[in-house]
Amino acid sequence: MNTAIEIRDAKPSDAKTILHFINELAIYEKEPDAVKTDEQAILNTLFCDGATAHSLICLQDGEPIGFAVFFYNYSTWLGKNGLYLEDLYVSPDSRGNGAGKAIMKELANRAISKGCGRFEWVVLDWNKPAIDFYNSMGAEPQNEWIIYRLTGQALIDFANKD
């Protein structure tokens, strides 16, 4: 029997749990060595004054089973904010019980309550379970856009370029 899923805002005391989920997500996404953050960095960025990113914790029977990290962006074409989902993760043994859907519905409701014109995220092209899940919600892929990224030394080099 499935019990009720609870979604709440993450608290500073959740930093260790968030880090755990980040590491599990990195393993799932076949990048276990890509995580460079730690509990203190999570505290310093998600829970500081003026934090620009936010997190939700998903619980079942009072135990954390998943999380999401999101932030607000802006659409110049719409003239409205958007909600961008950076990460969504539900522990493997808790998948299929509605937790992911509950997190996405919570975020959709937050987007609506903030007057957002969009709710967006990216998904790895090989992640068929996630793609099927997002398609089942009525989300549509935006195949015409290519993501570009500057990071690490390339970011520093470009910023300091004459």
Describe the 3D structure.
- With 162 residues, the chain is α+β, with helices and mostly antiparallel strands.
- Helices cover 33% and strands 25% of the residues.
- It has 5 helices and 5 strands, in the order βααβββαβαα.
- The chain has helices at residues 15-28, 39-46, 99-113, 128-136, 152-159, and strands at 5-9, 53-60, 63-75, 80-90, 118-120.
- α1 packs across α2.
- The longest helix has 15 residues, at 99-113.
List keywords for this structure.
single chain; 162 residues; globular; five-stranded mixed sheet; 5 helices; 5 strands; 25% strand; alpha+beta
- SSE order in H/E notation? EHHEEEHEHH
Identify the strand order in the major beta sheet: 1-2-3-4-5
Low-confidence stretches: none
Assess the beta-strand content as a share of residues: 15-25%
Q: Helicity level, as a percent range?
A: 25-40%
Characterize the overall form: globular
Report the count of strand segments: 5
Count of helical stretches: 5
Radius of gyration computed on alpha carbons: 17 Å
Q: What's the assembly state of these chains?
A: single chain
Terminus-to-terminus distance:
63 Å
- Major sheet summary line: 5 strands, mixed
Mean pLDDT: 96
Task: Report the structural category.
Answer: alpha+beta
